[in-house]
């Protein structure tokens, strides 16, 4: 026969199956022989012409009109036939079917064992509804007679598994709280009045998310009782909750015995509403008397409860006491029933004139973990990187390719710092989707820091080891690899976890300890946030070990910043690599283990990183601060050329003949280091003049350049000036006369020809000059 109306099982509405469409309606006679326990019955389903009612659907088989003295059990004379969606759902509904018969402990144990093997897997709403029906059938049996301790423990463990906050299927499934309350009262079947709680029987506390304490007590035992939970949280019953009968009447005292239960939830999984993180420290209390339901208390009685917080600091006057409204499946925060008694930095104390389910909400900051020093360090670091990048973009007149790569890494570092700061500051207010997106962006930028370290090291290998001065031709390749490789790693992580393990984005990227949006799974974090940076750093280490084992000729070049020797600049880059790596080493360890000393080290290295970038790359490498030494006008074959600035090595400006390359710097160094005997062997007369160099009019004198340079009795500044002039001549391809005299010495006089060293051969490292 058809169902008369739809039935609500759990949160699933079981629709009636339609006769003539979903099944063939039939009627007949079943004959049982004496001693026969079962008879086969054919039922015809017609799925090809199924009705439009959604699955699951149900119809019934009814036994009636027994003859020959046969009697029908009133509970088992009707069987439900349920048409379900798939084989997995059929398993759960099959467990329900087995409970429609007289039950014993062995049968209950078998069913609960099968359920426990399946309960850890995410289930659909239909399957959870079948699970609730299994619980209700077992609990109903437990109200009739005490079930075994093993079966109590099995049912308790199944409820615990459904409270796991990492599950998505049971979030907001508040009907399970009603099942838990009924289960708590069923533990008291045949328990003597006044007896203390017995662990494993009426007190169940082995689950990390659920503690149940049930008592069959006299009113005087219940009144004023203080239930103490985990972490110092507590709930106290009013002193005058129940009327105490006269002590002279034992019969009246026994009749006044009450069943009371206290349940402590350390997960808000079943009470999760659209508001994220509403329960303080994920703590929820339930207190109730059997057969009294959720009701207001009379005579101004109030239940007092305290909820503590361990890792966060409560913001004063921002707390609220909440009461669960089962009908609306939401929290009530008005002051009609609950009020805040006290909120300190460690706990919130509430008073509620209602017997129900309670919690507290409070605005907390993370200053005990991420304190003012953390935010100050982040500000210093962000400012340092931002100023260095702006200085490079706006103030750099001559940008070397290695410096461009360094700026790319700084952009990645700046983005990582900003996203990390936002994640810490807003993680508690962000939705799951927003937190997941922020965690993905932060993971990508974090990996980009280390990919740019590796690419810079490869560029240094090409320049310093392979002597390739044109690595800028590989700029597009470097750009794609450095920004693309982290994107590939992030995409691979998402594809594998979503495709192979069916994780949601909120499971891949979510809150870590409720503080920061990143990768909550430790194995995924180790594989992608620790292994890849480690591989990049190993590559950097190997490359520079080889570079420093080579001949030291590369130290005299200027491959990072124009006019700045590699001997200084390369170590500065390596120091920055080390600071970034150490900063995020302690940042990652603190994110995982939450030790305060790790946060201290992270803050220290973050401050050092920001100050280092500010001083070295914003102040010392600001090209606007480099001094100009002199300017020249040139006459070639009698035609004047436009004047152009020519600065000393390290000034960053080009000469008339072109840029100051590494060869120029090496040439100057070589000239300064040549011994006296080589100077004597290098004398070569006969240079002819072909052009005249004139100092600019504002300098007030004319400087004729010869083929040689002044001897050692000249002051260092004049010597450096003549070296500049010699390089200028070499770069412009001109020769100076050996008969011209040097004018404008430091004392204003002239230098005799006997004091002039003639043009000699100079060792040049790079033959292309």
From TrEMBL:
InterPro entries registered for this protein in UniProt: ADGRV1 (IPR026919), CalX-like_sf (IPR038081), GAIN_B (IPR057244), GAIN_dom_sf (IPR046338), GPCR_2-like_7TM (IPR017981), GPCR_2_secretin-like (IPR000832)
Location of this chain's protein in the cell: Membrane
A molecular function GO annotation: G protein-coupled receptor activity
Pfam families per UniProt: 7tm_2
Keywords from the named record: Disulfide bond, Membrane, Transmembrane, Transmembrane helix
GO biological process: cell surface receptor signaling pathway; cellular response to calcium ion; sensory perception of sound; visual perception
TM segment ranges: 373-393, 405-425, 437-455, 476-501, 521-548, 569-589, 595-620
Domain G-protein coupled receptors family 2 profile, chain residue ranges per copy: 370-621
UniProt protein name: Uncharacterized protein
The GAIN-B domain, residue ranges: 208-368
UniProt cross-references to SUPFAM superfamilies, sorted A to Z: CalX-like (SSF141072)
